[in-house]
UniProtKB/TrEMBL annotation:
<dbReference type="InterPro" id="IPR006176">
    <property type="entry name" value="3-OHacyl-CoA_DH_NAD-bd"/>
</dbReference>
<dbReference type="Pfam" id="PF02737">
    <property type="entry name" value="3HCDH_N"/>
</dbReference>
<dbReference type="InterPro" id="IPR008927">
    <property type="entry name" value="6-PGluconate_DH-like_C_sf"/>
</dbReference>
<protein>
    <submittedName>
        <fullName>3-hydroxyacyl-CoA dehydrogenase family protein</fullName>
    </submittedName>
</protein>
<feature type="domain" description="3-hydroxyacyl-CoA dehydrogenase NAD binding">
    <location>
        <begin position="8"/>
        <end position="187"/>
    </location>
</feature>
<dbReference type="InterPro" id="IPR006108">
    <property type="entry name" value="3HC_DH_C"/>
</dbReference>
<feature type="domain" description="3-hydroxyacyl-CoA dehydrogenase C-terminal">
    <location>
        <begin position="191"/>
        <end position="287"/>
    </location>
</feature>
<comment type="similarity">
    <text>Belongs to the 3-hydroxyacyl-CoA dehydrogenase family.</text>
</comment>
<keyword id="KW-0560">Oxidoreductase</keyword>
<dbReference type="InterPro" id="IPR036291">
    <property type="entry name" value="NAD(P)-bd_dom_sf"/>
</dbReference>
<dbReference type="Pfam" id="PF00725">
    <property type="entry name" value="3HCDH"/>
</dbReference>
<comment type="pathway">
    <text>Lipid metabolism; butanoate metabolism.</text>
</comment>
<dbReference type="InterPro" id="IPR022694">
    <property type="entry name" value="3-OHacyl-CoA_DH"/>
</dbReference>
<dbReference type="InterPro" id="IPR013328">
    <property type="entry name" value="6PGD_dom2"/>
</dbReference>
Length: 294
């Protein structure tokens, strides 16, 4: 199958990643379905996408007709079966928990057509850990977008030792069609490339904070001013979602058993408090009262 033969793409999960991935697919000309179990999540996704696309139109990045054409290609549903029964390509963007993803892939294997490719947007979980729940490991691949997908021009495409060359080629072609630069990794490793490098930076930043070497604000300032990073590591955790990073660390710790991979106590505490970053109004910074200048 070639990219031009793909008639429908299904995105599972309408959260902060899923709804933007779906819009990329619609803008790329693909008939696209967004599926989520919660009607409220789907309604919020529609509102957010309309707001983003309206800004694009006002800035001249998109015409009103192009916006309308993209939304004509988007469909929203709570029905898993309806979303996958006739689809050609699935992008899973549910919560970063292995047991949840395994359940999703098992269900996918039962309901999707035999030719359908399954891609996981996981930021750290290698696809072989979910492909084992299917009868088509050759058609399972990582397709890792970066937050926010409508802004970040990069996708990590990762093959397992069972992912076929055809599956990888099609995933790369689709990435190109949706105007994203894709990098192909032919060997699995937890966290892939970007998040392993980012994780090393964040791990050191949190270590310095927990040891009382510097306040998190000062660490952010140094990374921005001295290293020329656009935002500091604590600001980035707030932007991406502190819970997302926590689940990544938790999953890696489960895989390796290495105490060095265990989530930091301060991160775990924020997750328990529900202080997850910008999406909750408070994380490392309090966005309801102070905001963050970048």
């Amino acid at each position: 199958m070639k990219a031009e033969e793909v008639r429908q793409i299904t995105v599972l999960g309408a959260g902060q990643m899923g709804h933007q991935i779906a819009m990329l697919c619609a803008l790329g000309g693909f008939g696209t379905i967004i599926q989520d179990v919660q009607e409220q999540a789907l309604a919020a996704a529609q509102d957010k996408l309309h707001a983003i696309m309206d800004k694009w139109v006002s800035k001249g990045r998109l015409s009103a007709d192009e916006k309308e054409a993209a939304f004509q290609k988007l469909r929203f549903t709570t029905s898993f079966e309806d979303a996958v029964r006739n689809t050609d390509f699935v992008i899973e963007a549910v919560v970063e928990k292995l047991d949840v993803k395994r359940e999703v892939f098992s269900k996918l294997d039962q309901l999707a057509p035999e030719h359908t490719i399954f891609a996981t947007n996981s930021s750290t979980i290698v696809n072989s850990l979910v492909a084992s729940e299917t009868s088509r490991a050759d058609k399972v691949v990582n397709m890792h977008f970066f937050f926010p997908p409508l802004v970040m021009d990069c996708v990590e495409v990762v093959m397992s030792d069972k992912t076929s060359e055809e599956t990888a080629r099609l995933t790369m072609e689709i990435s190109k069609r949706i105007n994203r630069t894709a990098v192909l990794l032919k060997k699995e490793i937890s966290g892939f490339i970007a998040n392993r490098i980012l994780g090393a930076l964040q791990k050191e930043a949190v270590y310095l904070y927990e040891q009382g070497i510097a306040d998190f604000r000062d660490i952010d300032i140094i990374c921005r001013k001295a290293l020329n990073h656009p935002i500091g590591p604590f600001e980035l955790m707030d932007l991406s979602g502190i819970d997302v990073g926590y689940f990544v660390m938790e999953q890696r710790y489960k895989e390796t058993g290495d105490p060095e991979d265990k989530p930091f106590a301060c991160i775990e505490e924020k997750v328990k408090q529900g202080h997850l970053g910008r999406k909750t109004g408070k994380g490392w910074y309090n966005y309801e009262t102070e905001g963050v200048k970048q």
